[in-house]
């Protein structure tokens, strides 16, 4: 059994904010499993209470390596300063995506709490519940009403924020993967025979061997990125499919409700909160996955920009191998076959428009 070291703050992208992962215990749970290959009781309890124990947390413990600043082993010290600046820029992007992932959900939770929409057992009392359902207590009367209301507030705050937690974790992994493709592309495009890391001799054959070894290190890192990309796809395929499917359903139902059901300003505001939350989720997933797609395909241009024309045939063969493999883009997938990218986002919006148009015609 392979044990991994615990990740420290210094191992991660500089400026990456993981406070939300630590707050919910996800970070400590991942580190405990990485170092011991055992799941702590507290982590199991946390996942069970969160109804998220079925999520692939084991694979997530391996995927968290993408957050390491030394993930790529082919990067020389002479390029480390520029590489760290790339990681720092994308750490800021991760933080922005995390804020956006939580913002829509927090606004929705606040709306649910301030504007509850379900009557209690006794209508006309003005007392409303946040969630539908029955309780084995007279929850229309004090103090049971206050107890039930407080319980529902805690429930939606906990579970609602966990949705954003896992979404933000996925977005962080996607941006980290994008960062590594960008860094590897930068290193490849600047690879030439005047590269400082090469040990130069008067023998051209020896110089070519050293030059080829640098490209093979890049090839090993590229294969490593493809392995982690495949693991990310398989791990989050089901979650991505469910998330996009539910968001599409929410958007369609919200639009139909606004079109055909007369409602007051408060109800309309609540519906717009649901609409914005689903819209933010779809946009963030498709945009971040599209980043990875473009960066993975840009490896072809990076290889072509290297000093391949002055190298020997072995170098050209390895470079050609990388370029051929880079023709297949890396993205998230839904239903194990459909890529999640900007084109997918446009297709989703077109489908929503078509579905609303058809259903509205049927209503008429």
Automatic annotation (TrEMBL):
**Key words, A-Z:** Cell membrane, Membrane, Olfaction, Receptor, Sensory transduction, Transducer, Transmembrane, Transmembrane helix
Which GO CC annotations does the UniProt entry carry?
A: plasma membrane
Q: What is this protein called?
A: Odorant receptor
Query: Which Pfam family, giving just one, matches this sequence?
Result: 7tm_6
BP-aspect Gene Ontology terms: signal transduction
Molecular-function GO terms, alphabetical: odorant binding; olfactory receptor activity
| Subcellular location(s) per record | Cell membrane
Q: Does the keyword Transmembrane apply?
A: yes
Report the membrane topology from the UniProt record. Multi-pass membrane protein
Q: Does the keyword Membrane apply?
A: yes
Query: Primary place of residence?
Result: membrane
Superkingdom of origin organism: Eukaryota
Transmembrane stretches, start-end: 94-115, 169-188, 239-261, 273-292, 338-359
Family that this chain belongs to: Belongs to the insect chemoreceptor superfamily. Heteromeric odorant receptor channel (TC 1.A.69) family.
């Amino acid at each position: 059994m392979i044990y991994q070291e615990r990740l420290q703050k210094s191992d991660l992208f500089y400026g990456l904010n993981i406070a939300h992962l630590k707050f919910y215990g996800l970070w400590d749970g991942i580190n405990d499993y990485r170092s011991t290959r055992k799941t702590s009781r507290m982590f199991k309890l946390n996942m069970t209470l969160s109804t998220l124990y079925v999520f692939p947390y084991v694979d997530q413990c391996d995927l968290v390596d993408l957050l390491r600043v030394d993930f790529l082993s082919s990067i020389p010290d002479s390029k480390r300063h520029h590489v760290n600046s790339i990681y720092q820029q994308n750490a800021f992007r991760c933080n922005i995506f995390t804020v956006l992932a939580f913002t829509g959900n927090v606004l929705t939770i606040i709306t649910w709490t301030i504007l509850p929409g379900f009557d209690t057992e006794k209508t006309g009392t003005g007392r409303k519940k946040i969630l539908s359902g029955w309780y084995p207590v007279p929850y229309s009367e004090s103090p049971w009403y206050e107890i039930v209301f407080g319980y529902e507030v805690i429930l939606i705050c906990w579970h609602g924020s966990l949705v954003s937690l896992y979404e933000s974790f996925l977005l962080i992994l996607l941006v980290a993967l994008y960062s590594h493709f960008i860094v590897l592309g930068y290193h490849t495009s600047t690879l030439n025979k005047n590269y400082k890391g090469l040990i130069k001799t008067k023998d051209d054959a020896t110089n070519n061997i050293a030059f080829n070894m640098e490209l093979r290190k890049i090839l090993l890192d590229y294969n490593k990125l493809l392995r982690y990309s495949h693991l990310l796809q398989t791990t989050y395929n089901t979650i991505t499919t469910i998330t996009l499917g539910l968001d599409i359903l929410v958007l369609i139902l919200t639009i139909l409700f606004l079109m055909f059901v007369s409602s007051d300003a408060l109800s309309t505001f609540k519906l717009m909160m649901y609409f914005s939350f689903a819209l933010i989720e779809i946009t963030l997933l498709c945009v971040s996955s599209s980043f990875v797609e473009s960066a993975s395909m840009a490896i072809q241009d990076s290889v072509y920009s290297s000093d391949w024309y002055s190298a020997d045939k072995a170098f050209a063969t390895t470079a050609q191998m990388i370029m051929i493999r880079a023709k297949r883009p890396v993205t998230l997938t839904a239903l194990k076959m459909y890529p999640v990218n900007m084109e997918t986002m446009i297709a989703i919006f077109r489908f929503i428009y078509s579905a609303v148009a058809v259903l509205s015609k049927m209503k008429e």
